[in-house]
Amino acid sequence: MTTPNAVYWDPYRPEFWANPHPVFQRLRHEAPLYRNEEYDFYALSRFSDVERGLTDKESLSSSRGDILEYIKADLPKTPGLFIWEDPPDHTAHRGVLSKVFTPRRMNELEGKIRAYCARCLDPLVGAGGFDFVKDLGAEMPMRVIGMLLGIPEEDQVAIREMVDASLRTEAGKPLQASQARNSGVEFAEYIDWRAKNPSTDLMTDLLQVEFKDPTGTQRKLTREEILVFVNLLAGAGNETTTRLIGWTGKVLADHPEQRAEIAQNPALIPNAIEELLRFEPPGPSVARYVAKDFEIHGQTVPAGSAMLLLVAAANRDESRYPDGDRFDIHRKGPPHITFGRGIHACLGAALARIEGRVALDEVLKRFPTWSVDIDNAKIGSTSTVRGWETLPVFTGNGSRSSVRREAAPTATQESAATQPASATGSWELTLSTPAGPQVMTAHIVMNGESFSGTMSSAELTAQEITGKVSGKTLSWTLPLTKPMPIKLAFEASVTGDTISGEVKFGMFGKGPLTGKRI
Amino acid sequence: MPKVTYIESNGDEHVLNIEPGLSVMEGAINNNVRGVIAECRGACSCATCHVYVDPEWVSRTGEKSDTEASMLECVCDPQPNSRLGCQIKLTEQLDGLVVRMPEKQV
Questions:
Q1: Which of A200, A272, A511, B67 has the fewest CB atoms lying closer than 10 Å?
Q2: Which of B29, B73, B106 sits opposite A350 (nearest CB)?
Q3: What is the mean pLDDT of residues A30-48?
Q4: Which value does ipTM take for this structure?
Q5: Domain edges within chain B
Q6: What is the tens place of the pLDDT at every residue in A74-117?
């Protein structure tokens, strides 16, 4: 039955991506159980209904996925991908990670997270502007989850791009089932390398942990299960938090008085992040497979249907959040439902909160105000996350002519320097060695076609180095006696304040080298 | 009906009558007591319903399971009288229970 003014919504239309909240309000009032015939799904939008939907795991199953298109495609199952499992499989697999992403352990990462934020933001001070997503949101969460997993830094960008591509929908179109890539094959070489070179990261833990599998057998994870876990964590740890940081930039620019309050009083940050999460949740909806007939609002949703739980709509429900469409960092009401509820509640919630808080704190320390370059901002369309793909802002502490940026360079891209960058200076180098990443310090003094200097590390007292310059490339060697007599051979080039290249470990192969000016 | 006093970290007190059979966590969440997040809503997996049980009541709230003890290591600032609110079921014997919320759950 369609009346002329009946409310319509689907997840694919670009106009709904920009601002879905007016239509969400209509759904809550006019169609609390919404039926979309064209894409064949039902949707719930009121808070109590979404909460009920998330906690009724018998009726609303996760076993066919939590993405609408995948539920309808009925793809083959991926064992170990617990986000798409019901108990007991879910319980056994998620249980492996239950003590990893906890409040206490994630709080311990605060120092490292600040360091990553500083790396992203320090080069931008005085530049007149930056991009909340390309310069910070897309970088810092990737570095953190990559660090936790033990993925070498230079490979983290490629992985993030692979995951982003797998979740991106074209505006107006559903996700293609062929985009489903959950077997984690791209991580296979890291798993195998890490198995031979154990370290103190999560990937090593996953290789060594024993758990009770769904059949009750005590065993280690299979290689396939580890690949699935790593893929899930790398995917979940990147995009969602990136969106949170993008929304932080947009919403606070839209509410400058509240932004100023936070800048004056950083104790307001935790509540501000909770309100940002409520106001624009990075994951605006999740889907479930209706396993049993589900009665709600006097109707029966038949088994076999796909149900969308509209978290972003629930978060604005006026019956729970008075004046819910108003952003208010001083809101004292009940918590949001952004991280879900029940057994599938977001495993990474503590990490997301810490990253969001630290990112906001570090931005405000350097840029207490900014305004959005809205003509060049772009909101993203993916099947699971909603938010800014690029959010350039003007920070006003640079010349006006330097402010306009079409596509803000990322921290890892080479920027067009007006002068050749000099290698003279002090550098913190990270070598990807067969035994894991090693940090060394180098002091370099350029002298035309050659250079001299020293290198040292925690284990190595300063040793003199000399080398040659050819074009942009510096090359030099460093003989070591510990852990064994071996000559390291370096080749690297400098761009601005970053240095990158390759280091050979005698006959033990080679690995990438990255570094920054200190 | 057991009466439970929830004390927020800023000192605000909520004295509530909670249905027997509900957990300390549910009593807090159902009554909008601030200081408890409880995202997993009782699955003993998120470590965000952490409460400090008043010393007078600690021995009367029952034994912790291994899972709860394990998750209590993961809360911010665990103390000897720490419990997960979702694991304490309210009964008439707990009438008068006093719990304090930590400064932060995460």
A1: A200
A2: B106
A3: 97
A4: 0.91
A5: 3-100
A6: 777 888 889 999 999 999 999 999 888 889 989 999 999 999 99
Check CB contact under 8 Å for A103 and B76. Answer: yes
Cβ neighbors of A4 (< 8 A, separation 6 or more) are none
Predicted pLDDT at A427: 92
Partner B contacted by A322 (CB < 8 A)? no
Kindly state whether B43 is in contact with chain A, defined as any CB-CB distance less than 8 angstroms. Answer: yes
Tell whether A319 lies on the interface with B, counting CB pairs under 8 A: no
Per CATH, which fold does B3-100 belong to? Ubiquitin-like (UB roll) (3.10.20)
- A180-192 pLDDT tens trace: 555 444 677 778 8
Domains of chain A: residue spans and CATH? 84-271+323-329+341-402 (1.10.630.10), 425-517 (2.40.128.120)
Q: Tokens representing A256? A: 């400058």
Determine the Cα–Cα distance for residues A240 and A221; give it in Å rounded to an integer: 26
Residue A229: other Cβ atoms inside 10 A: 24
Give the helix/strand (H/E) hosting B99.
strand B97-100
pTM: 0.77
Looking up tokens 């000192």, which residue turns up?
B11
pLDDT tens for each residue of A335-381: 999 999 999 999 999 999 999 999 999 999 999 999 999 999 999 86
A343 to B32: CB separation less than 8 angstroms, yes or no: no
For B74, which of A99, A335, A349 is closest by C-beta distance? A99
Task: Please say whether the beta carbons of A351 and A361 come within 8 A.
Answer: no
Whether residue A103 lies within 8 A of chain B, CB to CB, comes out as yes
Determine the pLDDT at residue A496.
85
Alpha-carbon span A242 to A137, nearest angstrom: 4
* B-interface mutation test, from A97, A98, A341, most B Cβ less than 10 A away: A98
Residue numbers in B near A332 (CB within 8 A): 34
> Does B32 touch chain A if contact means CB atoms closer than 8 Å?
yes
Give chain B positions within 8 Å (CB) of A106.
106
pLDDT value, residue A77: 81
Condensed to tens digits (0 to 9), the pLDDT of residues A318-338 reads 999 999 999 999 998 899 999
Distance from CA of A233 to the nearest CA of B (A): 16
